[in-house]
């Protein structure tokens, strides 16, 4: 059927008619009307959108906020006075209507290894583990660090925390002992949940020993973790060790074996914290982005429903790791709130071969598929055959997140993966925003490859110039900021409200500043151009250049380091490090390798520098500030560095050029 295809007209891509016919929001006019209402009457709109949930007590006021630092502390409160519980809404609320329907579809690392967990089974697992937590004395407000691979126990742990009001802090399993230690120390957690190991491709690797090292080091910084729960994921005979510390460490399976299968929920205030998730910024150590209960719940549920045009019975798959916000909001909470079947994948797109994604799509008959541009580029590179050998007949909608998608990858995703039959939603958002802010609604908003298009309901983006003045009209660019709160927004950074205010609200009074640059084209569509701060986006993961620099400088041979991003074919951005050695140290290939290993150990493999460029000196202004603009251009292979006359020593640039590739 010709009209069953995504149609292109004048650079705009329209959804197939059959998709529009069943879409929740199925015309541009409907989007505009609902959007207008959400902006004109946010309290009316968000009050209505919150109707379907279970509220133990309803709110007194939908929204109260102050966005102006000049007028006092920044505060954002949604559904004030309400009482509810996230886990109750994700599970208990569905038991009567869909208790026997799958909630989680788990696809293990090895093809053929899988598990289906129904809502009723999930209820039991979560209650049992919540009782285990209670048995350890964990109560409302306590922090629990979760350092697990993509196994069902990860989801169960989070839901168990939310059930009893404990605040989870999930740490991505690819982070090093140092990074885990920082997060344990900052959150002062009372419990760590980890596993014996995990799989990387076909190989088992330890997690427990990394966690042990992190806890040894956290102890030296005054934070002793009293209890550790260990999931046996790999087991004996696979070449990894799992030392257990007497009195501190216990196995998950032993603990749940004797736990009760019911556990009452803790009714939480709307603004009680739900979780913290650490993310990189332009300065200092990663900060704990704190999300609260009611607003986040309403926002992730609504965005999941409308952005993915989710319908009852759809099989939904987001390929992210739950260690990132995408997994929190769109593998766990959003889908379960909507009673979806959410697929959770432990492996990687290239194991056992580059067709794994599509193999999984066919196996589970996935309707909605959400991934990152870096993953698309990685599989695209391996050739179409890996895709076309699978039917992918079930697919109805494709999504991307994490970084700008280059139009070439977008078209490949559309034509090869989606057979020009599935709309694509390019969703822009951040750890801090909790949920998607700028995105097409697939049945209503025609798309343009590379543009995240238009704001979701209730979201008021704007572009600011250097003075913080709003740039009006279309065909303009600037710094992307948001003018008013939306329910999923972060409320603070853990342990320091001051830091939260400085990072997000001090550059431009009265606005939440995103750190991204963007342009708004003639049609009012937004195009995210990337970070305007010292954050680089490597394979869709945020990395502060300052973090990588401080890891490098902690190596005994390094005097100084400057890190910038550079265009990278697969990763989007790669990490380019200029390194000045201490006097007497020698340049060598071996030392380059050692430095890369050192950064991996300090932060994790995702922070590995792609290029080390020896720098006898760095280009600095007379006041000592490193001119990163020059370093960025050099890293990108450009030869025109602009005005270098303000450098303390302009000859440094020539020397650096000579050292390139040495
Ligand atoms: C970038 C991930 C362009 C952006 C959910 C943002 C994007 C940062 C997109 C947040 C997109 C995310 N197009 N850029 N669709 N989505 N970004 O906190 O720079 O890991 O500020 O959240 O990723 O990354 P984070």
Automatic annotation (TrEMBL):
Residues the entry annotates as binding ATP: 402-404, 426-431, 516, 531, 542
InterPro entries, alphabetized: Ac_CoA_lig, ACAS_N, AMP-bd_C, AMP-bd_C_sf, AMP-binding_CS, AMP-dep_synth/lig_dom, ANL_N_sf
Residues modified to N6-acetyllysine: 625
Domain Acetyl-coenzyme A synthetase N-terminal: residue ranges: 31-90
GO annotation terms (biological process): acetyl-CoA biosynthetic process from acetate
Cofactor: Mg(2+)
E.C. designation(s): 6.2.1.1
AMP-binding enzyme C-terminal domain span: 547-625
Gene Ontology MF terms in the entry: acetate-CoA ligase activity; AMP binding; ATP binding; metal ion binding
Catalytic reaction equation(s): acetate + ATP + CoA = acetyl-CoA + AMP + diphosphate
Keyword entries, A-Z: Acetylation, ATP-binding, Ligase, Magnesium, Metal-binding, Nucleotide-binding
Uppermost EC category: ligase
Pfam families with a match to the protein in the record: ACAS_N, AMP-binding, AMP-binding_C
Positions contributing to Mg(2+) binding: 553, 555, 558
Binding site for CoA: 200-203, 326, 539, 600
Domain of life of the organism encoding this protein: Bacteria
NCBIfam families referenced in this protein's UniProt entry, alphabetically: Ac_CoA_lig_AcsA (TIGR02188), PRK00174.1 (NF001208)
Similarity section: Belongs to the ATP-dependent AMP-binding enzyme family.
Function: Catalyzes the conversion of acetate into acetyl-CoA (AcCoA), an essential intermediate at the junction of anabolic and catabolic pathways. AcsA undergoes a two-step reaction. In the first half reaction, AcsA combines acetate with ATP to form acetyl-adenylate (AcAMP) intermediate. In the second half reaction, it can then transfer the acetyl group from AcAMP to the sulfhydryl group of CoA, forming the product AcCoA.
Protein's name in the database: Acetyl-coenzyme A synthetase
Organism (species): Desulfoferula mesophila
Recorded name of the encoding gene: acsA
